[in-house]
Design brief:
Two copies of one chain form a homodimer. The first copy, chain A, has 423 residues and is of the alpha/beta class. The first copy, chain A, is built from eleven helices and 15 strands.
Chain lengths: 423, 423
Amino acid sequence: MITLSSSHRSHSTVVTLRGPDGAPLADADVMVRQVRHAFAFGNIGFDFVDLAAAQVGIAADGPHVFGGADRESAERLVELWLDVFNTATLPFYWAGFEPAEGRPDTERLLAAARWFRERGVSLKGHPLVWHTLAPGWLRDRPDDEVESVVRARVRREVGAFAGLIDTWDAINEVVIMPVFDNEERQNAVTRLCRRIGRIPTVRLAFEEARGVGAGVRLVLNDFDMSTAYECLIEGVLEAGIQVDAIGLQSHMHQGYWGEERTWATLERFARYGLPLQMTETTLLSGDLMPPEIEDLNDFQPSSWPSTPEGEERQADEVVRHYRTLLAHPAVEAVNYWGITDRGAWLGAPAGLVRADGTPKPAYDALRALVKDEWWLSPTPMRTDGAGRITVEGWWGDYAVDSGASTATFALERDTPLVQATLA
Amino acid sequence: MITLSSSHRSHSTVVTLRGPDGAPLADADVMVRQVRHAFAFGNIGFDFVDLAAAQVGIAADGPHVFGGADRESAERLVELWLDVFNTATLPFYWAGFEPAEGRPDTERLLAAARWFRERGVSLKGHPLVWHTLAPGWLRDRPDDEVESVVRARVRREVGAFAGLIDTWDAINEVVIMPVFDNEERQNAVTRLCRRIGRIPTVRLAFEEARGVGAGVRLVLNDFDMSTAYECLIEGVLEAGIQVDAIGLQSHMHQGYWGEERTWATLERFARYGLPLQMTETTLLSGDLMPPEIEDLNDFQPSSWPSTPEGEERQADEVVRHYRTLLAHPAVEAVNYWGITDRGAWLGAPAGLVRADGTPKPAYDALRALVKDEWWLSPTPMRTDGAGRITVEGWWGDYAVDSGASTATFALERDTPLVQATLA
């Protein structure tokens, strides 16, 4: 039996409030409110790329890979998305991002990145190196050329988005990468990885990305939760490659893992002392995918509806899953995989919003966690004679209002005393 | 479709035969015969430990771990064993080898090692480090002490058997080692591996063994044929640990792999450029173990008989499997796991000989490969005017008889011309 507690994510903090003159604001009525979570509550931002691009005059005719609502639907999703999530994953699937060599989709993605940043959303790029969706034009290049083109691609993307995207899935699904054979003609990245080995391929991605982006956070991401991924991680770390976080996918199209398995998985991967990012989290609100399917891409029925029973189940599982994840101190990010069923990966009813734009119960349930149970709503307080209030809340950004003035402060781990000055 | 050929294991070699005076033995009738295979056709030698020890006056009361016929049965197995196999795996299961700390079973195993060497059999020790059968007395020791005791054990065994055992399974089943949980109380080796990591544990075993035994061959051995083992191997090699051969277990209690899967497995592990040893090969002559069993140790029925149909299937599969393995140039050793059903691991009908001591069809079939189809039986030849004969045979040791004199030579890869002098 697992006892879940997220108490490690909040703390009682003494905030000394000062007026614009620097003197403590003694014995005053103030209103304290949370502005942002420090924890990364993420979702994919694929649906808003066209919308953001169109708003700065870039034609919305780019390719759609792995999800993306049409522009009209996206407009109605903006508020729902921003009300719950503070971190967006943007798509850099190479075959879609650079369908013709030398013509990358940089401008459109830059527009999307700026659109999110203007709205206070942190960004992650996904992924820099991956065998799936490696561009077809790379397939016939000689070995050494493949390597240099991959290296250049990594540098190009990290460089172009510096200051906007500070976290990247540097490389995706390396466990299967060199032995991936679910394709008619072997892609060039699989060929590269098979030739030079998994760890040199990881090193290549991390070194190139690190070389460009000072301070960039680089994630090793995989769907393989078996001992294989453990062995890969141990080899990568022994080889001295600096990994900032371990990414764990969890596309649960074949059913919710449950608390026990989830916790055991977190425990196995937490023992490397690195933060864990739940990079791709999916729970369905319809029929489950049959358990015998090995590659999820192999199952794409013509119709895969969201059902009332499925929606209730999804809401229950979303709450249970987020409670489990947030209870584990190693988890620093949970990225849900899809805001809407419209254009969802595999056509699955994986979104938190139905294709018609109405929120599913899972959306409301997740919002209730993120913006209510785990959130400090505006709370009236009174400072003491030294201008102090005691704030109990989740790590994150806060504001305190006194009349027409506002002060901001952050609650952070290991910071029991903070100062805030009204302006 | 795989085309199997073992032609890379033999070659046409010109042998110049000289008399005791050094002059070419021209125009003479000689008889050429193979004496030994260079290829390691191995089996466990567990059954003969008591017998060998008793022959030098050591009481046969040692523990039996993972197989071992009683002494009377063993006597009747000697000839069968030696007629087919040239390499024996000796048991160094720590809990059995050193049931009380400081009292290792060295003398008895030394007697067994000498017994085999006297009969021209090469030896492998199995295993130096393994979580299963780690001694119970190690369990309560503090962490740093566990590591130093493990290191000392590796040095002790390799040192004591220097000159007798030249190949060791340095470490066994590292993929599962740190997450092994099929036991009531965690063993000390799992605890060590979980604390320091898989690769440092591998390094520990290899470094200690290498430090003692100059020229010793060290094998990394596992039952996990998934990408996990690939990832482990890649990490170990990236870390600079010198592995002499990759060991692949293949206890096929749940059914023969078949040619396709076997070949694909060999191909995946051959790509590291290291020799492959099929360290533990089992095919049953009775009912198969149900496929849902994950840890083979969890299935030990009270009775598991060899059946006539099972014996025919086993013979067919043994031949097909050895043909496949020998056809792959990376494979340097095939070790069958058990000569007899008597005392066989799990009680399974895995032996090549029935519990009553009579050979199964698989024994005869394997013997026909090893000592007939892949073997040069005594063959009359006539030297030319320069004393030369052309011998076409498998790599190995040969003798040539001329009257009462005999010369020996070896056929080896990349050696098209050899000399042999009668004595």
